[in-house]
Amino acid sequence: MWIPTEGEGTQIQSYKHNGNIHRIWQETTVLKGSRRIIIGGNDRTMVTESDGRTWITREPAICYFHAEHWFNIIGMLREDGIYYYCNLSSPFVYDKEAIKYIDYDLDIKVYPDMTFTLLDEDEYEHHRQLMGYPDVIDHILRRNVDKLIRWIRQRKGPFAPDFVDNWYERYLTYRK
């Protein structure tokens, strides 16, 4: 696997279990790149949906990807605090073209007060049947929901105080 260079721009490509593209973020600046972790930042980047529709993100975001965990975490900086959107997904791969992962529908939204909501359970069950997610994937994802909830409660990783703010400051140095 390639290691992205800090300061370079790259795409983020999300796929579904059946191999179809789900969503593409056009430009994310790599803030940290290793074989295990990629941290990126973006602001007002174009996102293309699988049906070709596009939209622009509304606020700066710090993205956390790990090669061993079945989730990724997006910290969005808004006027009233940091919101997190956690995608249950395959671990990332990076191939010089993009950061890539399989989106498995389940999401956790975390609010600035660190309360959270598990989202899209119905969509997960529908796609699990439709695309034939194996039982082993279901078990891995359920364990990773529990792991994410522990991280949220313990303020671990991207949920740690100042994590998003510190990486956002680094992102701003590349924007100058």
Automatic annotation (TrEMBL):
It comes from the Bacteria. The keyword Glycoprotein does not apply. The keyword Signal does not apply. Its cofactor is Mg(2+). Pfam families: DUF402 (PF04167). It catalyses: a ribonucleoside 5'-triphosphate + H2O = a ribonucleoside 5'-diphosphate + phosphate + H(+); a ribonucleoside 5'-diphosphate + H2O = a ribonucleoside 5'-phosphate + phosphate + H(+). GO terms for molecular function: magnesium ion binding; nucleoside diphosphate phosphatase activity; ribonucleoside triphosphate phosphatase activity. It is an enzyme of class 3 (hydrolase). Mg(2+) 2 binds at residues 105, 107, 120, 123. Its EC number is 3.6.1.15, 3.6.1.6. Mg(2+) 1 binds at residues 87, 103, 107. Keywords: Hydrolase, Magnesium, Metal-binding. InterPro entries: DUF402, FomD-like_sf, Ntdp-like, SA1684. Residues 18-156 form the DUF402 domain. The active site is at 23 (proton donor). HAMAP family: Ntdp. Has nucleoside phosphatase activity towards nucleoside triphosphates and nucleoside diphosphates. Belongs to the Ntdp family. This is Nucleoside triphosphate/diphosphate phosphatase.
